[in-house]
Structures are given as C-alpha cells and as structure tokens.
Amino acid sequence: MKTLTLLRQGSPLAEPSRQVELLEQSNGRSRFEHVLAGSGLWPLRAMGIQVLQINMGKLCNQTCRHCHVDAGPDRREVMTRETIQACLDALARSDIPVLDITGGAPELNPHFRWLVTEARRLGRHVIDRCNLTILLVPGHQDLPEFLAEHQVEVVASLPCYLAENCDAQRGDGVFDKSIEALRRLNEVGYAKTATGLTLTLVYNPVGPLLPPPQAALETGYRRELHARYGVVFNRLYTITNMPISRFLDDLLASGNYDQYMKTLIDGYNPVAAAGVMCRTTVSVGWDGRLYDCDFNQMLDLGLRSGLPRHIRDFDPVSIARREIVTGQHCFGCTAGAGSGCQGAITA
C-alpha cells in the first residue's frame, strides 16, 4: 500500500510533513477548503481569543495508542521556564480569560506548578488536561490538593468506563489507576456541591468511529461510574480521534485509513464547522511557536505568513482576527456533532 510506505519511512513515525502529504493526497473528491466554501465559511477566520492553550512538552508517563502528540516516557521535548514566562507575559498583555495546559503529561514539566500559580495570580481560569495516572506517580501524589487549592479545572481522559476497553487504548492497568485518581480528586472536593471544583471527563472512541451523542454517553458514564466505583464528575466531553500521528499510524497498520477518512468527510457538519475551537483558541508549542490549534501544532502547520510566529512576539490584535490554516485533517473536528478540546460542538 503506497500510503503505508509513505508514512512508515520515518522511525517510529514519519515527520509531520509526510503526514500532511498523505492527508492531502487522500479523498481528492472532497477538499476541506472547498467544503468550507460551500458552507460560506471560506476563508475560516478567528473570532477573538478566549483560550490560550499551551503544550508543556511531549514527556508523558503513558503511551496511548490514540495519542496525536506521540507523547511518551522517552520524549525529551519540554517547555522551558523562559518560554513559560513569555506565555505569562502574553496573558498579562491581553484579556484572554482561559489558560488551557496540555502535554504530554503537563504536570511532568518542572515548572508546571509555577505556571499555574502565576496564571491564577493574573486572575485567569486554568485548565489542566490530566491523564489521571500522573496523580499516583511518586513526587506528584499531592497534585490533587495543589489543583484544588488553586481552583484549577481538571479535564481528565477516560476513554471508557469498562476496564478492558480503556486498557486496550491506554495500556494494562491504566483504568484501575485512573479510578483511584478520580477518587482522590473527589476526596479533595472535585465535582462536589459548593466547592466550585470542576472535574470534566473526556471520551474518545477506541476504534475508527465517530463518538456517540455526548449527552447520552454522559448519562451512561455518570450512572456506571457512580454505581461501580462511587466516582462523580461534572460533565463529559466527546472528542473525535484525529487522523494524525500515532492514531494515523494505527489506521494505516489496520487497513482502516481510507474508510475512516470517508467517515469524517461524509459526516461534515457546517454547524460544527462554524464553531470549531480554532476560531477562539491559540495554541503554543513546547518551543513557543504559535499555531491555530493543537492538531496543527502536531503537523507543524504554524500561523499564516505575516503573523507572529512565536509567543514572545504575541500580538493579540492581529491574531484575534487571523485567517486560520486548514487541511484535510480538519474534517475530524467538523464531522457529526463536531469535536474539539471543549467536546462536541452541536447537540
């Protein structure tokens, strides 16, 4: 298969440019920009900046099959304190209300707690995208108390409420550790009445499928997690697996790539396209480079020419009205109910 050879020339995965080349070759009958134009959305433009999302690095204590960051214990890309300071400076010079911290496991960055403390001092709402098992790693076991003290919203990945499905995607034993971590978060007040501590769970499909309806799945999660484990949470997000990086490699190896891309393209929803997260979010890579979203970051698709390319040159005025860089992978955010870091876009 030509596309399989194309991607696997690299080790362990191809360079981002090879992934972009593969995506652009696929499904030529439907180009994303042409579909957007048919919805009256081309060129796609930002509508302000509500979220500054920063990737603290690719170091992680897990190696998940679906990971679009290709994160793991062997990665060494970690955001420096100097770059973190530039992110804080950008917040201080703007009125962006939300700081969204991701990784890898962002908590493994040695400056994570300093970033949280300083961002809260600036009065910003802080989100920690947590893989849960990090809360049990020695040296990080007091993180639930730290996060609660600083009123940090925890957005935690839990791809299923059944151990076998979760472990198939994230590794043996991860589910049991995740449940233990969720109980710890509940113990310090997360998802409990009147604490103001928000715990959001994230579901993504185990295989090459679109997520089921978010509201119905949340009801099932709430019922099963409480009945089986006594765990409570505030809300559930469903997120579509993006056909990039490790999940793309898995699609090719299993022979599901063409069918999955067809599913995404056929599922295009113009209402979801109008509400994609890149229109209100700016993404910062571990090295400080700027992107329209976390997925573009992983494909090395920076902001358009003429815009600031690094967080130290951040200009909220020009970036807030920028034209967004798109590609075939964007069908992943616009299929069905839509998808993004804030879950489904439409009901």
Structure description:
By secondary structure, the chain is α/β, with parallel strands linked by helices. The protein has a single domain, classed as Alpha-Beta Barrel (TIM Barrel), CATH 3.20.20. It has helices at residues 2-7, 16-25, 32-38, 81-92, 112-121, 143-149, 163-170, 174-187, 214-229, 245-254, 257-266, 270-274, 294-298, 316-320, 331-334; strands at residues 51-55, 98-102, 125-130, 153-157, 199-203, 235-238, 281-284, 290-291. The chain has an eight-stranded mixed β-sheet with strand order 6-5-4-3-2-1-7-8. The two termini are 38 Å apart. 45% of the residues are buried.
The rough form would be described as globular
Sheet having the most strands: 8 strands, mixed
What series of H and E elements makes up the topology? HHHEHEHEHEHHEHEHHHEEHHH
Strand order in the largest sheet: 6-5-4-3-2-1-7-8
What is the fold named in CATH at topology level? TIM Barrel
Report the structural category: alpha/beta
Please indicate the count of domains. Answer: 1
Which strand-content bin applies to the residues? Answer: 5-15%
**Rg, alpha carbons:** 19 Å
User: CA-to-CA gap between the ends?
Assistant: 38 Å
Q: How many helices?
A: 15
Assign the CATH architecture. Alpha-Beta Barrel
- How many DSSP E strands? 8
Fraction of residues in helix: 25-40%
Text of the CATH class: Alpha Beta
Any low-confidence stretches, pLDDT <50, length ≥5?
Answer: 1-13
Chain-averaged pLDDT? 89
